[in-house]
Prior knowledge:
By secondary structure, the chain is of the alpha+beta class. The protein has helices at 8-22, 24-28, 46-49, 53-61, 136-145, 158-166, 174-186, 211-223, 230-237, 242-249, 258-265, 270-283, 289-294, 301-314, 320-332, 336-339, 343-349, 355-395, and strands spanning 2-3, 38-43, 78-83, 86-91, 100-108, 111-119, 123-129, 149-150, 154-157, 188-195, 199-205. It is built from 18 helices and eleven strands. The radius of gyration is 34 Å and the shape is rod-shaped.
Amino acid sequence: MRRATAVAEPRRRARHRTAAACLAAAWCAGALPAQTPTVRATVAAAAARSGVPGIAWWCRTLPQRADWPAARDPALPFAVQIGADGLRVLGDGLPLPRDVVAAGTVALGGSEVLWFACRSDGSEDWWLGLDTAAPAAWREQLRALGADVLDEPRQLDAAVVTGHLAGALAEGDPRAELLRLGAAACGQVAWNAWRTPTHLRVRGRSEGGLLLPAALLWLAHDGGHRTVPPLALRAFAARDGDRAEAARQSVRAPGPGTEAALLALLHADDQVAFAAVDALRRLGASAALPQIVGAAGPEAPWTSLAAADALRALWQNADPAVQRSTRAAVQRCASVAVRAVDLDAIAGAAVSPRPAEAAADAAAARLRLLVVLALTAIGLHGLWLRERSRRNAAAV
Length: 396
């Protein structure tokens, strides 16, 4: 699995494209960083945008902007330039192929570094120069998301990523509506990246293409709180096998929010919840036993098996209040595996703090009794032999 060194910067610029466009208010509020890339794009007519809800939503917001020409019908094709100075409508733009909704370039420092084309089904292609340098902050963020890999399909939920990165946004913040509505309109984002002799290629799909969710992620990252641990963020946002893997890896470097993140993952699908229960067991989270038992059930067979193992491993370390709550949860649980765990037997085994020594004492007592019985048998046998000899002598 190779790491992509150029994906981060395209994302930063790509996101600038829709981030800049769809985030018009953010520019006006001065929310964008200084070195903003310049995006030039042509967008198709409204009829062609209907298959890409995210872009259609963005286009519906444009007439609300002060810099949108009053005489311009937003339902018609248009070309825009988005940069540090805001948004400018450049006219009708170049003719687009029938199945293309938006296409254009991203420039940085006067040089074009990314070319993109979004089709009417939400699929989008990026072409990036091989010498494109990624900022350190974005390389770090992409690594945290596991989004910098090459030749490996990935899938993330745009709303979950932006929500966790941005955190709570105050009313009136120009990013609030954008991040909430825009990310929801994009939905899940799937992509794959690979290297060719001439370019770094990215191909993916969402309800908003690739640039729009990348732009939202950029805004959320630069203006948000970013307090979610990387593994927890991957576990929350991933919609592929990386989600359960992130839950498993959280045991290696647990942090203040690790247990809370794992508890939230108990509500995920069976495979992810199974990984979360196993991680909680390995962390020794006995206080989480009621929630662990509550996640088990016939519809979650793997989670149920892990919950039964967690009961056996953590029960003795749970405090009385947790044990009472856990017993109640077991009584309500429909999982056969969980209800088969004999909590009383586990509790009985835990009564003696030194069970091995108690067993050794019992074995010693049995051994002493056997010695006494053996000595008694030998004495009686001796007496019997003496009496027999006397009787034989008297008879002669």
